């Protein structure tokens, strides 16, 4: 079942329950104003205070560095977004990403389970970091809560905006940068865990035995010959056991070469074409990843099933890395409704008056929103047509 149906069913169930039990939910602190549900609480303020008060100097120093990183990321992201217009016909760089839903034109599809967990880490880490830095700057937090816009989840920390307006620009910038810096920090931690799993855990528990076909490129030589799920064992007489042997075998292929590919499903002949990246090299047109088997000494202790849980953790941290990095960086674009817009505005006010700053921020917002919308719409239109 396409993931969109899960969201449609969830939408129907959630809103039926919300409207039937409106009175008790309202008494429990849930605000029901279609199309939005919002739950506010003050219970977690003590937790945020404890974290903020443990080492205010650390948090300020951490976010001072974070401000610099944020502006560097803002410049890089702005350049990449503008530069993406040059390649929009072949590879739109901006697309909608909804866990479990295949979006036409999107280069990736986020798994439902991993995606929702990863998205939860994005929201929690982002909003709590805003709250921690707000308390470090002695800003009151009115409430903390969760929200649901139709079926799209969200989280928020509600600081006192009036108090924020009275503190120093540097203090405000630390608060604005906190969310994205925390997301990028979590992405780095996740990358470290992925590295450890790949380089320490996998070699200790598994051994590579061929390469699994993950995708076959349409109209490539392998199309209609090789299938997703096959395991490549040899190519043109060269044994394939892992990524290194796979790369070595494929690097020696020439265009228009007749080759024999042996898989776990049988033997197949095909003729290579020119590699789009290097016309002197042969091209087959498959996307692969190592095929792993559990080492005998490991399966003797843990059995043949339990070790595969490691792959679940690997995939989870992979999506935590991708979503935290992607959303954290996107949030730093100089667009008025994003943290990047607030940072950009405060930076400009060091030199210019509000009379000049607001039109500049409006202009950057208009330009980048136009590029984003155009890229999304173009990607959807191109995939449908």
Describe this structure in words.
The structure is a single chain. The chain folds into two domains: 3-197 and 318-384, no CATH class; 218-284, PDZ domain (Pdz3 Domain, Roll), CATH 2.30.42. It is 54% helix and 19% strand. It is built from twelve helices and twelve strands. Strands 5, 6, 7, 8, 9 and 12 form a six-stranded antiparallel beta sheet that branches. The mean pLDDT is 90.
Please give the structural blueprint:
Blueprint: H1 3-20, H2 22-27, E1 30-33, E2 36-41, H3 45-54, H4 56-83, H5 112-136, E3 141-149, E4 152-159, H6 161-164, H7 169-205, E5 206-216, E6 231-235, E7 238-239, H8 243-251, E8 258-263, E9 266-271, E10 273-275, E11 278-283, E12 286-294, H9 296-302, H10 309-330, H11 339-349, H12 354-384
Antiparallel strand pairs: 1-2, 2-3, 3-4, 5-6, 5-12, 6-7, 6-8, 8-9, 10-11
Helix pairs in contact: 3-5, 4-7, 5-7, 5-10, 7-10, 7-11, 11-12
């Amino acid at each position: 079942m396409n993931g969109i149906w899960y969201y449609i069913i969830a939408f129907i169930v959630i809103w039926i329950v919300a409207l039937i039990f409106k009175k008790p939910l309202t008494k429990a602190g849930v605000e029901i104003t279609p199309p939005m549900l919002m739950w506010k609480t003050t219970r977690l303020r003590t937790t945020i205070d404890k974290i903020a008060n443990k080492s205010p100097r650390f948090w300020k120093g951490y976010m001072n560095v974070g401000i610099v990183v944020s502006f560097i990321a803002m410049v890089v992201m702005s350049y990449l977004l503008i530069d993406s217009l040059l390649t929009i016909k072949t590879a739109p760089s901006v697309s909608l990403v909804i866990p479990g839903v295949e979006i036409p034109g999107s280069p990736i599809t986020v798994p439902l389970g991993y995606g929702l967990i990863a998205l939860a880490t994005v929201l929690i880490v982002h909003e709590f970091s805003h709250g921690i830095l707000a308390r470090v700057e002695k800003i009151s937090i009115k409430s903390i809560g969760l929200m649901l816009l139709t079926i799209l989840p969200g989280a928020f920390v509600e600081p006192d905006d009036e108090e924020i307006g009275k503190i120093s620009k540097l203090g405000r910038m630390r608060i604005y940068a906190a969310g994205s810096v925390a997301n990028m920090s979590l992405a780095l931690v996740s990358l470290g865990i992925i590295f450890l799993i790949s380089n320490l855990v996998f070699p200790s528990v598994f051994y590579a035995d061929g390469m699994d076909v993950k995708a076959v490129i349409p109209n490539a030589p392998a199309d209609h010959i090789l299938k997703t799920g096959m395991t490549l064992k040899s190519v043109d007489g060269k044994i394939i056991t892992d990524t290194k042997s796979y790369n070595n075998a494929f690097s020696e292929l020439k265009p228009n070469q007749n080759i024999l590919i042996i898989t776990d499903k049988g033997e197949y002949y095909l003729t290579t074409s020119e590699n789009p990246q290097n016309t002197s090299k042969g091209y087959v047109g498959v996307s692969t990843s190592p095929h792993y088997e559990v080492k005998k000494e490991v399966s003797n202790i843990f059995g043949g099933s339990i070790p595969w849980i490691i792959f679940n953790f690997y995939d989870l941290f992979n999506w935590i890395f991708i979503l935290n990095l992607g959303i954290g960086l996107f949030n730093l674009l100089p667009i008025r409704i994003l943290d990047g817009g607030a940072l950009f505005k405060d930076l400009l006010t060091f030199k210019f008056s509000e009379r000049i700053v607001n039109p500049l921020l409006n202009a950057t917002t208009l330009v980048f929103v136009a590029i984003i919308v155009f890229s999304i719409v173009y990607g959807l239109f191109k995939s449908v047509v």
